[in-house]
Amino acid sequence: MRREPRYGIDNKGQAFFSFGDPIPEQRWANGPHLFYGAMVEKPTNDLLAHKGEIYRREYGLLRAWLTPAEQMHITLIGLGDGKSDDAIDTACRMGGLMQAKPFDVCFDRLSAFGGGALVLRSSDHSPALQHFWRKLSAIVHDSPLQDFATNRLEPHVTLLRDRGRVPGIQERPVEPVRWTVRSFALIHSHGGKYEFPGTWQLNGQDDAHAVM
């Protein structure tokens, strides 16, 4: 089937015609962003990336930036941008104090979060995830990191970002996605790339084994 050309204005103010979807340009934070998160393993990360593409087309978010499958994660606690090496070392030490077993999660609601993020969240808050999050939050807030930590960040999975149109999307239930969280990490994000200063496997013995 022949496609109609699309007319638009690019980021430099130049008019263009296109017969395909636009290639979105992600605008990165001013400096490296530091946060705790739980990376999603295969094949669930591929499933989440596919759902992001489905919602992108359903809502006509053709300029949205999709989270790549290999970067799919549950955001746990944000520590801000441009943190020093000392702050990163402290965050690694605090992560190593966490004690936990693997736990199951279920994400079944589609929501718009701040910054134009379209995310999945849990309607019942995944009790085991909430328990893990509260324990990690307590460790962080009882440390030198307390001034950096975000206080109102609910655990969520970001599927895509579109600052212009996502904020108008109403929350709704969606088909549940379930998986088991077996590790969490300190993630250093900058320019679309992830580094992992600390990763901790949840070993089922009520403590976390650090892999640095």
TrEMBL record:
Pfam families: 2_5_RNA_ligase2. It comes from the Bacteria. This is 2'-5' RNA ligase. It comes from Rhizobium loti.
